Amino acid sequence: MRTIPHTHKREWRSLALSALACALLPLAAQAQGAAALRSVEPRAVQLTLPAEAVIEATRQAVVATQVSGRIVEVKVEAGQQVKAGQVLMQVDAREAGENAAAARAQLVQAEANHRRTQNLFKQKFVSQAALDQAEAALKSARAQAGAAGAGASHATVTAPLAGIVALRHAELGDLAMPGKPLVTVFDPKGLRAIASIPQYKLKDAQRAATAKIEFPETRRWLDGARVEILPTVDAQSHTATARVYLPADAEQLKDIVPGMAARVHFVVGEARKLTVPPQAVVRRGEISAVYVVADGKARLRQVRLGEAVADGELEVLAGLAAGEQVSLDPVKTGIEMKQAK
């Protein structure tokens, strides 16, 4: 295998950084004014134990009907807000309605028979046993009428809670069956992140009193309102389940829905580290760099970065020293360098 001379490696790295700087120039031709700077200093950051997670609703209901029939009316769409008790769907349950009418007719007959038996019993024409039998028949008819009426009322599918329609499982004309899901509704004010913690990291996670939730795609960070670690470990995966509840602030929960991927950071300590904000970092492939500004001149320098800390900034492992200043707008700085030439 041929080895690459060290001088050639430096030349290639220099060429890569030059190409990276040139690639930034056409991105913001309309930029005006000087770019903001940030002094890199060691600062106290929270040490965290990260774990992949998924967002779920704490209050969610899968609505179904208890009668069979065709869906004749659909009143909601996915994403629509609903109130508790609002009608979601209507099922054609004429058979259940006929059964309810028959049960009511039997109840009327049982009531009349009970009244006649009472009158006959007062006149000593029938025995106590006959009266008891009439009373039992009346109670049975009342129970059957109540059950039949309840079954007919299930033809109207209503929302069990106030929230948002997450999914509609059936369409107009579909056959509804008892227990078949029709609509899923969730409360957007109650969300939590569900994470799996490996058994060997469980003690560290249990020491954490607080946690933060990261959404890597949008670079959003939220403070967890409460941490809850279930007391059991799955026998197959040897992981414990942790629940980190999101804050109830509706503004902070904007655009966060069940099923989203997230990352939970359990706060286990504190240390001093050099960090830079993510907007100061330029990435092209495997290369990460920042513009270091000194004596009014900016120079693109490659850096080695670690994981994101609890406030979203990136740890600097190599490439920067304390006290150096970096540009918070590398695109604008690249344009200024080009204009200075």
Summarize it.
It contains five helices and 23 strands. It is an alpha+beta fold. The protein has three domains: 6-42 and 274-340, conserved putative lor/sdh protein from methanococcus maripaludis s2 fold (Beta Barrel); 49-59 and 188-270, Efflux pump adaptor protein, beta barrel domain (Elongation Factor Tu (Ef-tu), domain 3, Beta Barrel), CATH 2.40.30.170; 60-186, Beta Barrel (OB fold (Dihydrolipoamide Acetyltransferase, E2P)).
Furnish the topology, listing elements before pairings.
Layout: H1 6-24, E1 37-39, E2 43-57, E3 60-64, E4 69-74, E5 81-82, E6 87-91, H2 94-122, H3 128-153, E7 156-158, E8 163-168, E9 175-176, E10 181-186, E11 191-198, H4 202-207, E12 211-215, E13 220-223, E14 226-233, E15 239-245, E16 261-273, E17 275-276, E18 282-284, E19 287-294, E20 297-302, E21 304-308, E22 314-318, E23 325-327, H5 330-340
Antiparallel strand pairs: 1-23, 2-11, 2-16, 3-10, 4-6, 4-9, 5-8, 6-7, 8-10, 11-15, 12-13, 12-16, 14-15, 17-22, 18-19, 19-20, 19-23, 21-22
